[in-house]
Each structure stands twice: as structure tokens, then as C-alpha cells.
Amino acid sequence: xxxxxxxxxxxxxxxxxxxxxxxxxxxxxxxxxxxxxxxxxxxxxxxxxxxxxxxxxxxxxxxxxxxxxxxxxxxxxxxxxxxxxxxxxxxxxxxxxxxxxxxxxxxxxxxxxxxxxxxxxxxxxxxxxxxxxxxxxxxxxxxxxxxxxxxxxxxxxxxxxxxxxxxxxxxxxxxxxxxxxxxxxxxxxxxxxxxxxxxxxxxxxxxxxxxxxxxxxxxxxxxxxxxxxxxxxxxxxxxxxxxxxxxxxxxxxxxxxxxxxxxxxxxxxxxxxxxxxxxxxxxxxxxxxxxxxxxxxxxxxxxxxxxxxxxxxxxxxxxx
Length: 320
Hints:
Elements: H1 3-30, H2 38-60, H3 64-67, H4 70-91, H5 98-107, H6 113-124, H7 127-159, H8 168-176, H9 179-193, H10 199-209, H11 212-222, H12 233-258, H13 263-273, H14 279-287, H15 292-319
Helix pairs in contact: 1-6, 1-11, 1-15, 2-7, 2-9, 2-10, 2-11, 4-12, 5-7, 5-15, 6-7, 6-11, 6-13, 7-13, 12-13, 12-15, 14-15
């Protein structure tokens, strides 16, 4: 069998099950098994327990030197800030409602690295890739949260001058107390000192980590609402292009030609930056009075489009 066909079949075998489970989540919601009020609970359960446990056990499997690489940090920060500048200059001067403008800007760079990226890397590569991805997510999470809050609030202030002020201490406290951040920090400490976790404790985390992938994917499908897509096709197309093609391309170029990171690190960064919009963005948009209908539409379109673009990126990365 030719190499390209073998790689293609391997990629399909990775991505189809993931997006099939997302589709199952949507169908379960349509059948009424899951209701709107259940989705935030599923997200919280997955994030606080399943994903945190998955991150923790993947990191503690390895020594710190195996999963932490300064080159990765240089690539992800460079990619993030380059994308932020491109996105801001592309959309800030549009003559549209300021709340929608804020939603467009944030939707263009916030990526679902945890709920979609982790499963893709876990199945496409190994637990080592997932452990390295956990570190990437931890370093990017504060930037993602703070920048999204600033954009939402800035655009809200432009729309109405009497908008309430940003409580930065609450934002910082939310980042510090984030379960995934805590799991990464504790995991890195254990990894650095090479502590041995007792088997019963390790089993508890393994059981909890088992809920992370299926419930995360189901909750994404259950979050889908199609009603507002047709009114924003042009901007949704631009967002999908930036998020799913341009961001990972920037990461790939920086990884190969500027910072020259290893192949696995390159693939991890590229895949993570090619993820669809994060579900947490929708929650933030409602909290800060942004255009949550647009965010919901962006969540659907980028997730559906990513079924093809993630497959394409995996195919390209395995070839080069």
C-alpha cells in the first residue's frame, strides 16, 4: 500500500471516531436526553474532574525533561501574539456592532485545545504528546482568558459607556484556581522530583480520566445551535480560515524555520493551534454581555470544518 494511502487511512481512523462522538452528542440533545441546562454541568464535570485527572496522570508518567521544552513555549507565544495582531487589524475596523466585533475577534483565536486537541493527540500520537500538550495548554490558558475578557469588555464599553468594570482580581483568582492549571503545576512538581504515586491513588486518577474524552466530545455536540449561522456566513468563513488554517500554518513555519523544534513538538503545536473554537468562549461571552449567538454559530462552523482540516493537518504532518 502506498505511504500516502496508508497515512490517509490512519488519519481517518483517528478523526472519524472523535467527530462521530460529537455528532452523537448533538443527536442525544435533539432526542431530549440532554437538555440545555445539562450542558454546563457536563462541561464542568469534564473539565474539573476528567480533564484535570487526564492531564495529571499524563504528566506524571514522564520526567520533566521529557515533556518541557523552552522551544515549544517560544513557538506558542510567538504564534499567539502574531495571530492576535493579524486578527485585531483584520476585524477591528469593520463597521459592525461592537459586541459582535468583540465576538468575531475572540472567536478567531480561542481554540478548544483541551476538549478536542487532547483526544486527537492522544489517539494520533501517544500519552507523551498529551503530556506535552498539557504544558502548552497551561501556558496559553492565562493569555486566552485575560485577552478574551479584555476584548469582550473593551467592545462592550464602546457599545455602552455605563458598562460595569472588569474585576481583574477575580479573573486572576479564576486562573490560579483553575483545576487544569493546578493539575499541571502539581504534575510538573511530581515529574521534576520523580515522586512515585501510590497505585491506589493512581487508579483513582485513571478512573476519573476515563470520563474526560467521551463526555467532553458529547458536551460539544450538545452545545450546537444552528439558528444564527445563515446571518453570519461571511465572518464565520473568515474565522474558520484564520483559526483552522492560518494559525497552525504560522505555528508550523515558526516551528520549522525559526525555532527549529523537534518533529513531535512541531506536530503537537500545529495540531493544538488548528482546533475549533473553545466551548468556554461561549460561557465567557454570556458573562461579559458579548454576542453569544455569534459565538454559538462560530462554535458549530469551526467544529464541523475542523473535522476536515484536522484530518488534513495530520496527513500533512505525517508526510513532512
